[in-house]
């Protein structure tokens, strides 16, 4: 390999890094100040690109000049910044008093809505933006040709870094951002107008995302799937760098850019998993990212974000639970084949969601990768049936074992971390598991998956299989619920409420969390195994991020502060999706709108709303 | 009999010496206060005893057994209870639930999945709450309590493990003056009544001079004086670097209040 | 405006006439409709699937005006989004069969969805006409009695471009393909086939960027470094545009033979715009160059009704409806076993010519167009395009027998 190639390849890496940094810097700022895990950041990136491919050609009608190109890019970013403000004013502002995770759910609703809104406005065909005038050509560097526009992009990253540094150190707004990132309560105590600070930060964050998107238009085709392709990567960059750290994000982006540029030479399939491998490695060694700092322990005692009370079932609750179980058992008698199928799925998702809330609500362990254990359970069952020729019964036993085994393996590292870093490590492990299932074609069938995962003959009828699922899921939920009320469940809540106190009374919080992670993984694995048999196939989407996010949406819709909320959330989420999907191609828009409406009306989830109702009654 | 002995504890953070050759001993039923100006190394010393920090050198002996560098939960199991400067309780639980949790942990039953947590050790927990005067509030969520009451519950939590030694980091911080005396009196009664040693740090000189049997004065990580309150109060160096005239008057006032 | 109205009306008439040509002289269909459950990625892959659905509607309207199917019954497609995941798709398929009372299933876009629905159909013993999924497995290793495929598979399309490269001298080849089944199996097919067309050909570099996330700079750099004489490209959609732009600027395609799957389809040509590379050998659909009268009528009718040019998806949709109608007419019943027995060997006259459903692997002989890319005005199209009849590019029967024992 000659020097020119190495240099140019490294420049390619820097250009990617620069683009990634611009986007990630906005995300890290927003998280630092507001603690919002802003899924909609990718949507802002996409909107920046869409606005730019509309605006820049319009500006070119006047004059095809570089000045107007960059005017258009900046203007697009400003427009997106305005949309960020809109989201803050109309949505997030109403949610600052509820647990932080609900804001995540709200931004997820925004993601779904923006995806379909973009299809409505700009149509499904990808749009290639105009190239930047004067920067169309390639520049010769040591005998290699390199795009002039990318040379410019390489400069944009450090320029944004420098400007942000000036902003953070030379303006009152920036100093407040830094202060809020370090200690949010202090800024609140200083009498700063927090609402204005948050609005300003959302503007800046969305502006940077929009800028990142608008700058891409000479390079990529703008499509309605840009958001998902960037959002995980942006999160990875911010986490590797340390949440809230702009220089950290820069460092991480450069690292990823270079590793990718040279990694593809040795492992041509590396892009699928590279960033997640890097994130897992960094977090195992540096639990707060490269330049992040440990989250300051709350000075005042804050109410935990999770299950607050564990009341026993009263007469009403017993009646409702009884009715729900009776309804589930009656479906095969009263409903048609499709109703049975839907009911079966709701039961399976209820178990998976309940197991996730066992971690999130009861243990304070926010997992962004719970689908991994669901999917690995499904794969264990599916592969045993199709490859090892086992019947359904032993395969179904293997599903929770596999889910628990992998949860134990990954959980060993996961429970060493806390907060958002823990969540992102679960995501990294889930993506690594996903990549293995995706890539190991000989065994897993790759992304096509494996078909032929059907139940044993006795359970082949939809009704019988439904009863099998009902038995497994209702028993599973009942058992997990019992654990919540048992000393083990109480110990998890204790460790979540106050780690220092738990330690001081002799509790080994980490080991208990690890056991909880394993138990929840097992329950999710059982759900996954049942799901594989209900669908007849397994494939990597069962481990993928969208399903993990669906599970999160379910428990948040249901309310993470109540024990049984997750079950209601799973049913509601599935019912909404199933209602809109046959009605329109744009069902995601309505699903997103429904989620946002539910978050606004029931800011503590359905379970929380029910609790409030019962509290008054 | 010596319950706790610290032998030549040293700890430095970067170049800053936080504790230098700190040694002291504490007998059963004795209350030892560590005082000193801010940054004197009180918390560092305290945390080395409690297991939150490992000393660079030196030993901590509990009833003759070396517990140096053991993690807090191990130190707890050896019979050390502790309270925190900012009360640490389980906010999602009731007052009773908090104490029950401590009892469950003490009996090593945290991994049980069959029993119902709220049915375990109810009576013992109520008895502990009764000892700190909080039995009437047992069923309330702990988050609803006044801060002084939370501190009392925290004491009950610490007592749940039947400790031989109580570590109390600024036990009266954040409390109203009237509540402080009551809490310290309660601690003193329990300590002396059951032979529990109490090691505490404190800013409130009234509390220190009223209840401590002995006082350890730290300045810049070094012990500059140690002895009964009268002796420490009379120590010229202590008066100069730390107590000052106002502190001296406070000490006199406190003594009178306690004995009069 | 008047001219427009006139042309529109004329085109509609042409469309009706075209459809009427199937069953001349019949009154519009009456009675209970024959329902076909069509599930596809209408939300995620709208650029392809919406023109596909449009064309099905166009064709079905024509068929029904001309007397319907099975002796006068109207044909109806029930369209559903498949959610783009196997899990959702199987539930939707159940909905179509159970609630909507569809006689059989058709559609799907993604290969994993297609395979899952195929297996579901096999389990439920219902016919499934997979229209768009490309994976070879669907008719080979994982084929089943109830699953038929319309579109030319990955293997067939790869073979088409490889054979079009006959006579080229490029020996050193680089492969770039999206990292998923379609890309991997296209690459595998290419490696298997290229030696037969260009003796002594060797693979000197392979790049498999993640689907939808190509890092174009790094990928182009890695390919150029291997100094290939030819490049086999399987990237499509947004990845393709980013790759082509980067490659154009860096001169990757200069003096190199490029073979590329699907690139000539309007779905991918339109987003490329004036970046369209010159002289790539591609499969695609040069809709404006197809001269067959039936096809011209279809194009006119499609443009008139939807005010848009037809896409590859449109052709596929129209042919789907034609083949479905022919199948129902031949079987004369909606009973699954009769349909499955009637399908092999069914020959349908379609807007792309005669399409046969081969019995051995249940793969149709529908072909596609092969030619070279060229920029005309501000958008790309194809030159020297010719229709490659799928019949000439099917898997050899011996290979099918090896993959599907008992056939």
Question: What would your notes on this structure say?
Answer:
The complex is a heterotrimer of chains A (617), B (260) and C (407). Chain A has 617 residues and is mostly helical. Chain A contains 25 helices and 6 strands. In chain A, the strands form 3 sheets. In chain A, strands 1-4 form a two-stranded antiparallel sheet. A two-stranded antiparallel sheet of chain A has the order 2-3. The longest helix of chain A is centred in the N-terminal third of the chain and has 32 residues. Chain A is globular. The relative contact order of chain A is 0.12. Chain B has 2 domains: 175 residues, P-loop containing nucleotide triphosphate hydrolases (Rossmann fold, 3-Layer(aba) Sandwich), CATH 3.40.50.300; 71 residues, no CATH class. Helices cover 40% and strands 24% of the residues of chain B. Chain B is built from 9 helices and 10 strands. A 6-stranded mixed sheet of chain B has the order 6-7-8-3-9-10, with helices on both faces. In chain B, strands 2-1-4-5 form a 4-stranded antiparallel sheet, covered by helices on one side. In chain B, helix 3 packs across helix 4 and helix 3 runs parallel beside helix 5. The mean pLDDT of chain B is 88. Chain C is α/β, with parallel strands linked by helices and 407 residues long. Chain C folds into 2 domains: 229 residues, Response regulator (Rossmann fold, 3-Layer(aba) Sandwich), CATH 3.40.50.2300; 158 residues, Rossmann fold (3-Layer(aba) Sandwich), CATH 3.40.50.2300. Chain C contains 13 helices and 14 strands. In chain C, helix 1 packs across helix 10, helix 2 crosses helix 11 and helix 3 crosses helix 4. Chain C is globular, with a radius of gyration of 21 Å. The interface between A and C is large, with 77 and 71 residues.
Multimerization status = heterotrimer
Given as residue ranges, the uncertain stretches of chain A (5+ residues, pLDDT < 50) are none
Radius of gyration of chain B from CA coordinates = 18 Å
- Find the CATH topology of the largest domain in chain B: Rossmann fold
List the helices and strands of chain B in order. EEEHEEHEHHHEHEHEEHH
Structural class computed from helices and strand pairing of chain B = alpha/beta
Q: Under the CATH scheme, which class of the largest domain in chain B?
A: Alpha Beta
Largest sheet, spatial ordering of strands of chain A:
1-4
Which bin fits the share of residues in helices of chain A? over 70%
* Overall tally of domains of chain A: 2
Termini gap of chain A: 76 Å
Transmembrane segments (chain A): 6-31, 43-60, 66-92, 104-123, 148-168, 189-214, 234-255, 262-285, 319-339, 346-375, 395-415, 422-441, 464-484, 514-533, 553-575, 587-606
Protein name (chain A): ABC transporter permease
Keywords (chain A): Amino-acid transport, Cell membrane, Membrane, Transmembrane, Transmembrane helix, Transport
Organism (chain A): Falsiroseomonas selenitidurans
């Amino acid at each position: 390999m000659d020097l020119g190639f190495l240099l140019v390849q490294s420049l390619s890496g820097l250009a990617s890094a620069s683009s990634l940094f611009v986007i990630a810097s906005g995300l890290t700022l927003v998280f630092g100040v507001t603690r919002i895990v802003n899924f909609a950041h990718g949507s802002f990136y996409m909107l920046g690109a869409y606005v730019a491919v509309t605006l820049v050609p319009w500006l070119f009608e006047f004059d095809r000049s570089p000045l107007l190109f960059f005017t258009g890019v900046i203007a697009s970013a400003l427009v997106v910044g305005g949309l960020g403000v809109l989201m803050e004013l109309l949505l997030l502002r109403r949610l600052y008093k509820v647990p932080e995770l609900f804001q995540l759910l709200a931004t997820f609703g925004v993601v779904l809505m923006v995806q379909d809104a973009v299809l409505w406005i700009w149509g499904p065909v990808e749009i290639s933006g105009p190239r930047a005038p004067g920067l169309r050509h390639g520049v010769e560097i040591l005998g290699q040709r390199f795009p002039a526009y990318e040379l410019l992009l390489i400069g944009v990253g450090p320029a944004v870094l420098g400007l942000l540094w000036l902003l953070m150190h030379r303006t009152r707004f920036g100093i407040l951002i830094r202060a809020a990132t370090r200690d949010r309560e202090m800024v609140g105590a200083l009498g700063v107008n927090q609402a204005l600070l948050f609005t300003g930060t959302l503007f800046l964050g969305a502006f940077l995302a929009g800028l990142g998107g608008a700058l891409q238009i000479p390079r990529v085709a703008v499509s309605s799937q840009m958001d998902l392709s960037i959002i995980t990567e942006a999160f990875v960059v911010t986490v590797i760098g340390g949440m809230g750290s702009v220089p950290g994000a820069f460092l991480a982006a450069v690292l990823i850019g270079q590793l990718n540029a040279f990694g593809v030479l040795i492992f041509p399939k590396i892009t699928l998993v590279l960033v997640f491998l890097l994130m897992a490695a960094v977090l195992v060694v540096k639990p707060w990212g490269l330049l992040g700092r440990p989250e300051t322990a709350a000075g005042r005692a804050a109410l935990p974000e999770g299950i607050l009370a564990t009341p026993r079932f009263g007469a009403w609750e017993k009646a409702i639970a009884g009715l729900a179980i009776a309804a589930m058992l009656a479906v095969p008698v009263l409903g048609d084949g499709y109703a049975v199928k839907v009911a079966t799925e709701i039961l399976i998702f209820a178990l998976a969601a309940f197991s996730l809330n066992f971690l999130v609500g009861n243990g304070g362990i926010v997992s962004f990768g719970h689908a991994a254990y669901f999917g690995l359970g499904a794969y264990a069952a599916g592969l045993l049936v199709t490859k090892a020729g086992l019947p359904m019964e032993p395969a179904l036993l293997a599903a929770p074992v596999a889910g628990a085994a992998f949860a134990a393996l990954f959980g060993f590292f996961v429970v060493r971390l806390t907060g958002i870093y823990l969540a992102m490590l679960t995501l990294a492990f889930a993506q690594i598991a996903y990549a293995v299932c995706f890539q190991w074609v000989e065994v897993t069938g790759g992304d096509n998956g494996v078909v032929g995962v059907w139940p044993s003959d006795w359970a082949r009828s939809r009704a019988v299989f439904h009863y099998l699922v009902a038995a497994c899921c209702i028993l599973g939920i009942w058992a997990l619920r019992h654990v919540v009320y048992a000393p083990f469940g109480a110990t998890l809540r204790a460790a979540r409420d106050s780690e220092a106190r738990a330690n001081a009374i002799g509790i080994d919080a980490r080991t208990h969390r690890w056991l909880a992670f394993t138990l929840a993984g097992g329950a999710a694995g059982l759900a996954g195994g049942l799901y594989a048999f209900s669908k007849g196939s397994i494939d990597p989407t069962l481990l993928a991020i969208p399903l993990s996010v669906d599970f999160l949406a379910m428990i948040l819709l249901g309310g993470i502060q109540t024990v049984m909320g997750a079950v209601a959330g799973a049913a509601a989420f599935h019912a909404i999706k199933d209602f809109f999907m046959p009605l329109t191609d744009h069902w995601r828009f309505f699903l997103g709108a429904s989620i946002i409406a539910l978050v606004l009306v029931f800011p503590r989830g359905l379970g929380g709303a029910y609790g409030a109702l019962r509290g008054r009654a | 009999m010596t319950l706790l002995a610290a032998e030549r504890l040293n700890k430095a953070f970067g170049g800053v010496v936080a504790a230098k050759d700190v040694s002291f001993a504490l007998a059963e039923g004795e209350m030892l206060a560590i005082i000193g100006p801010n940054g004197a190394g009180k918390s560092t010393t305290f945390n080395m005893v409690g297991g939150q920090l490992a000393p660079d050198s030196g030993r901590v002996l509990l009833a003759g057994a070396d517990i140096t560098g053991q993690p807090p939960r191990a130190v707890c199991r050896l019979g050390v209870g502790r309270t925190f400067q900012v009360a640490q309780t389980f906010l999602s639980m009731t007052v009773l639930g908090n104490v029950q949790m401590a009892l469950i942990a003490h009996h090593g039953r945290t991994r049980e999945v069959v029993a119902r947590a709220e049915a375990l050790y109810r009576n013992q927990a109520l008895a502990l709450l009764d000892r700190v005067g909080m039995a009437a509030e047992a069923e309330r969520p702990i988050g609803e309590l006044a801060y002084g009451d939370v501190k009392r519950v925290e004491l009950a939590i610490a007592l749940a493990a039947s400790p031989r030694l109580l570590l109390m980091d600024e036990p009266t911080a954040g409390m109203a003056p009237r509540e402080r005396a009551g809490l310290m009196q309660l601690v003193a009664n329990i300590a002396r009544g059951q032979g529990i040693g109490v090691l505490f740090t404190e800013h409130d000189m009234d509390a220190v001079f009223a209840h401590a049997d002995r006082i350890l004065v730290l300045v810049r990580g070094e012990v500059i004086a140690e002895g009964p309150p009268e002796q420490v109060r009379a120590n010229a160096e202590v008066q100069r670097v730390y107590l000052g005239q106002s502190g001296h008057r406070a000490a006199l006032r406190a003594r009178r209040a306690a004995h009069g | 405006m008047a001219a427009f109205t006139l042309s529109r009306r004329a085109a509609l008439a042409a469309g009706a006439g075209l459809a009427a040509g199937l069953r001349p002289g019949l009154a519009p269909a009456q009675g209970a409709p024959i329902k076909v459950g069509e599930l596809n990625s209408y939300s995620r892959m709208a650029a392809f699937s919406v023109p596909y659905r449009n064309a099905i509607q166009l064709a079905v309207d024509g068929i029904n005006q001309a007397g319907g199917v099975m002796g006068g019954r109207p044909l109806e497609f029930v369209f559903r989004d498949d959610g783009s995941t196997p899990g959702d798709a199987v539930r939707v398929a159940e909905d179509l069969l159970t609630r909507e009372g569809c006689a059989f299933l058709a559609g799907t876009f993604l290969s994993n969805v297609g395979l899952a629905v195929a297996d579901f159909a096999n389990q439920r013993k219902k016919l499934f006409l997979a229209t768009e999924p490309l994976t070879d497995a669907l008719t080979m290793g994982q084929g089943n009695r109830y699953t038929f495929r319309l579109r030319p598979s990955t293997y067939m399309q790869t073979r088409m471009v490889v054979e079009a490269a006959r006579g080229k001298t490029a020996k050193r080849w680089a492969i770039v393909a999206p990292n998923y089944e379609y890309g991997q199996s296209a690459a595998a097919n290419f490696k298997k086939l290229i030696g037969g067309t260009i003796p002594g050909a060797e693979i000197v570099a392979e790049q498999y960027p993640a689907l939808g996330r190509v890092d174009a700079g790094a990928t182009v750099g890695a390919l150029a470094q291997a100094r290939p004489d030819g490049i086999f490209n399987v990237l499509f959609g947004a990845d393709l545009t980013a790759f082509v732009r980067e490659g154009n600027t860096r001169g990757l395609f200069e003096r190199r033979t490029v073979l590329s799957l699907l690139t000539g389809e309007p779905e991918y040509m339109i987003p490329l715009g004036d970046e369209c590379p010159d002289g790539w050998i591609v499969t695609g659909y040069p809709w404006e160059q197809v001269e067959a009268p039936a096809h011209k009528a279809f194009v006119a009718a499609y443009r008139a009704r939807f005010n848009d040019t037809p896409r590859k998806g449109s052709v596929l949709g129209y042919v789907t409806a034609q083949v479905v109608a022919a199948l129902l007419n031949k079987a004369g019943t909606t009973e699954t076993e009769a349909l499955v027995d009637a399908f092999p060997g069914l020959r349908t006259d379609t807007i792309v010519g005669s399409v046969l459903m081969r019995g051995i692997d249940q793969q149709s002989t529908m072909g596609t167009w092969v030619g070279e890319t060229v920029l005309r005005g501000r958008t790309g199209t194809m030159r020297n395009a010719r229709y490659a009849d799928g019949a000439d590019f099917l898997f050899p029967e011996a290979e099918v027998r090896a993959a599907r024992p008992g056939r």
